[in-house]
Amino acid sequence: MKQIKYIFILLQGLVFFTPCNGQVQSNLPTQNSGQMKLIKTQSKNVGDNVHCGLQDRKGNLWFATTADGVFRYDGKSFTHFTTKDGLNSNGIFAIYEDKKGNIWFGTDKGLCRYDGKTFTPIPVSTVNTDYIDHFTNKPTTTIFVNSILEDKNGIFWFGAENGVYCYDGKIFTRFLDNPNLANPTQFDPKLVLCMIEDKKGNIWFTTRAEGIYCFDGKTLFNYKPNNESWFRGLLDDKDGNIWIGRREKGVCRYDGKTFTNVLQNGSFDSCTVNEITQDTKGNIWFATEGVWRYDGKTFENISKKNDLRHDGTWFVLEDKSGNFWIGTRETGLYRYDGKTFTRFSE
Fold it and tell me: How far is it, in rounded angstroms, from Cα 291 to Cα 20?
């Protein structure tokens, strides 16, 4: 593991102000402030991103990237973990803390788990050897994991390119092999992106070509609101509504009976919503083309012209101090304190 320490010189005058909500702090303060940068070391591809993040029970912030492994931030400095430290891949697309405090990583080469000391690759023994990789169109025995969930019963769910897997702590099984599953229409979920468990215990997952699935513990249902097939972000809000991110069409909301398109009547309605989260005040945040916030009545674009080097955002995370962390393309990481955006990446 590589401890990154970086000396900063604050260049006066390089602060841009936006007309509405904030200002850009392009250069971070000196090292004495404890702010350090997330630095790319593995890839220079503009298309790579800070894909997802979490705050663990100890207060550490974790940021997973699609080419540079994972970074842990303790409030003062970043610690960088890559395959040299035991990760099974530097391409990470999901991160999750389980009930025991282990950190799980979903990668383009399967699963890896961190127990606080050691990274351990977790082989998924049920993978079919004749699986065709969606991206390369070639046979592979490796699953590409996009989402991870531990349900109320302690069962792990993994959403992958080639389907959904379950893990009881000892054995992996294909979700479709569950003998108690009622699947009269013979649905075969693939290209799974995001996954949540709602307050009623239903498991929801979005896909890139098959719409939205919901499993109520017995029966698997499939929905394609507006006859659309590509969905991503998922949220079960405080009122029990399910929010779903659409592709280039904003969001829709499910109240248990009906899917409703929630429209801004502006540019948001043509955005692809990658992630949806609700803050402690009840506002709903969307990671999309920029960062948007919805207070129940009005959509507001929080990130203005100069706030983010790249406005393609992948996640929004509220930390325990009320700050919001945002991951973007070009391996960008930002913190928003309600007024100012501060960049934490090179």
Answer: 14
